[in-house]
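Running this now, will post back.
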Amino acid sequence: MQNITPQGDIGLIGLAVMGQNLVLNMNDHGYTVVVYNRTTTKVDEFLVNEAKGTKVQGAHSIEELVAKLKRPRRVMMLVKAGKPVDDFIAQLVPHLEPGDIIIDGGNSLFDDTNRRQKELESKGLLFIGTGVSGGEEGARRGPSIMPGGSPAAWPHVKEIFQSISAKVDDGAPCCDWVGEEGAGHFVKMVHNGIEYGDMQLICEAYNIFKAAGFTPDELADVFTDWNDGDLESYLIQITAEIFKQKDKKTKKPLVDLILDTAGQKGTGKWTLINAIENAVVVSTINAAVEARILSSMKDKRVAASKILEGPKPEIDVKKKKLVKKVHDALYASKIISYAQGLDLITAMGAEKGWDLDLAKIAAIWRGGCIIRARFLNDITEAYRKNPKLENLMLAPFFTDLLNGFQENWREVISIATLAGIPVPAFSASLGYYDSYRSAVLPANLLQAQRDFFGAHTYERTDKKRGEMFHTDWPEVIG
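Update: finished.
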């Protein structure tokens, strides 16, 4: 290959909309980006259209991409998780030299990141697995970035990543080093799990309002008001906009024309699997994942609706009062969803020795990402005041909120249940709260059952913890 004078600060592989927007963001901040795509015509199209007039450079091969980069070479991939990531790594390695850095910016499973880091470090290369949240708009204007992997790589990408990330009111970048190995991708995975919970809770609030006779226009006003208050968040904001949208052809509210079947890409499921493996309760997130699965069973649900009986989904509560009650139930349940996600991060950090800083992670989520919300400032502050906080619910600010919201929270779930309106995430959140605050649970009977059929032994309330007992239970026949 002819001599090329390296001018690129960073290379990017994968020119789907997310990749294109991240490239343009980097260009805006003064970095020269070299781009490559497996379908090379996409490179040429990007250069003459979206990247026209920028410093972005194109490459038609991996070899050319690497040749155009200054050392240490930094190559970021935004490609589909799994085999495509491994395939591109295999193509890159022969052209790189010790100290060069490969960055995976996709939604990879953190276990894959652990493996890739070890393999690449054995070859003298550095690896970063980074979560990038904010969707297409976030990539263009400033995402939340959660990098982890080879610590030696961070100083070489810190300036770029923090420059292009979202900034909060105090100017702090929504990007910081998370930890070693797959810590960055793990935190992004949990972020997505919390996102599942958040979205389902909003949908359950919507379902309650719909049964009470709210129109989409009225709901647009409710969610706009909420976004001006303590529930301010990206998801509340876009929900208000969704209710305002009219179908261009029929002029009907678009939300009423969208089929009630939801998709998912798998990060919610990964969160559940990891929570089970670490014995952490994430019941709100679990309810949200299951709700999506049930939504996809449209034909079965339609058939069952003609057979299985239940009350007519109607709610007779004055609208203004209902708005306040649902606000409190939503906020309380939202706290639980974040508490469960952060608990999982704590457990996994201890398991892997990643030394994860929850205040830092919450701060990263304050801007740019899908779950960005005003109360993440309060979460950040809670963990800054007490880094060893056992559970988010126990921070004084959130304890006061939960105590204050409790009556309306319980009433909303009761109203919905009596009307036959499914509220699995609201219910799971309250169930978690009530279980966590209970000094005594019925697990004594459960343990007796286990000892009865399996001689699993039990502890006694009148003896020291750790001392185990077994009863010779009567024989049961038949």
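The chain has a mean pLDDT of 95. More later if anyone needs it.
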